[in-house]
Structure formats: structure tokens, C-alpha cells
Amino acid sequence: MAPQINPSILSADFARLADEAKAVEGADFLHVDVMDNHFVPNLTLGVPVVESLARATDTPLDCHLMIEAPDRWAPQYVEAGASSVTFHVEAAAAPVRLAREIRAKGARASMALKPATPIEPYEDLLPELDMLLIMTVEPGFGGQAFLDIMLPKIRRTRELISKHGLDLWLQVDGGVSASTIERCAEAGADVFVAGSAVYGADDPAEAVRALRAQAERVTKSAAWACDH
Asked: Binding site for a divalent metal cation: residue ranges?
């Protein structure tokens, strides 16, 4: 799969979300961070905003739920118009059941891991997913510095995906920029969430194109992609 860039609206102007979505229409997905001030110490937006955003843009929505009780709430985000819904394994009561419910409702099912959560205990769950998200910062706030110590975890996850022959996207979120995206791509990521690096640029659409070009260039020669 060609690398994908998903701009995070957490770094956008919340008073102009429709315009901010249009500013990155060349993006693969629009990353929507949902925070409840319980699972993470920040409060952002919920189902009504996702419904409005889905009507305002043709770019598919990638909803990242940093919330408690995702088993209860995640299906509502599919109904609101999300094309992909990510829940945190640390918060899910029944991750396999939840992933199957998200898929049954017509969206891609994705599971996220916080930095301290290892991938290995969840190897058997991978076939139930369409995407796995490795957090490269602690979830809760945008603009944080990239955690280099997550690169080995990205590599191990890519190895597990290859081991099982899965068509599973591997997303990274947190501190992704022109200075870090190539390391992520080399390690095995193919979906990149970028907030400040896109919306902090003078031309967000050009920033998306430039980041994608960087990731594509590295992926062509990456060992994991050559073995694929």
C-alpha cells in the first residue's frame, strides 16, 4: 500500500473546521481526535461535530477515540459518518467484539496502543483489525515531541503483520513531521497522522504532499516493503 497522510484536526482552527478540512482535500483521511477528559486529560469533540464534519468534506474521517467505554460509544461514530474508527485497547472491555461490530456497521476497525502498551499480547487479535495505531507520544495533546523509543515497537509490529500475511495498515500518531516521518516509514509504518506539521504550515495541502513524498521515497527501499 502507498503511504497515507492523515492530517489531524486537533491542530486545526476549531472555529473553521469545514474550511480546515477543505484545506487538506488531497489527504487520504482526516484524523479526528475524540477525547473525553477521562481516558486522557483533555476534552475535544464528540458525535455531533463528527456528523457535521462528515457532511462538510468528501475526505473520509479517521476517528481516534481516546475515551473510556469505547465499546459503548464507538459504533455511534460509524453511524455519524466515520470511515475508520480507532479504539484504545487499554479502554476496551471486549476488543474483538468491538472490532467486529465496527466492521459490521461498515467502517474500518482500528486498535490503538499507548506508548507503554506492548504489541505482543495482542498478536492473536491482529486478524480482526484493519489498522493498528502505535502512539508515538502520550495521547491527550497535540504538538508533543516524537518518542524515538517507539521505533523498535513499530518494527516488531510490522514483523508480526508480515508473519501472519495480513493486509493490516500500521499507523503512527504523535510528533510526525518532516524530521521524523522517514524513520517511521523505514521502521514499517504506512499511515501517518500529522497535526502541527500540516496545519502549522503556510500551505497545508503542500505539506501533505511533501510528507507523502518523503514517506514514499523511504518505503521504496525499506527492508519490510521489499519483503512484502
From this structure: 31, 33, 64, 173
Residues identified as active-site: 33, 173
Annotated binding site for substrate: 8, 64, 140-143, 173-175, 195-196
Using alpha carbons only, give the angle 155, 160, 165 rounded to the nearest 5 degrees.
125
Can you say which residues are annotated as belonging to the binding site? 8, 31, 33, 64, 140-143, 173-175, 195-196
* pLDDT digits (tens), the chain, 228 positions: 899 999 999 999 999 999 999 999 999 999 999 999 999 999 999 999 999 999 999 999 999 999 999 999 999 999 999 999 999 999 999 999 999 999 999 999 999 999 999 999 999 999 999 999 999 999 987 778 999 999 999 999 999 999 999 999 999 999 999 999 999 999 999 999 999 999 999 999 999 999 999 999 999 999 898 865
**With contact defined as beta carbons under 8 Å apart, do 189 and 160 qualify?**
no
Cross-strand partners of 196: none
Residues 162 and 224 sit within 8 Å (Cβ to Cβ): yes
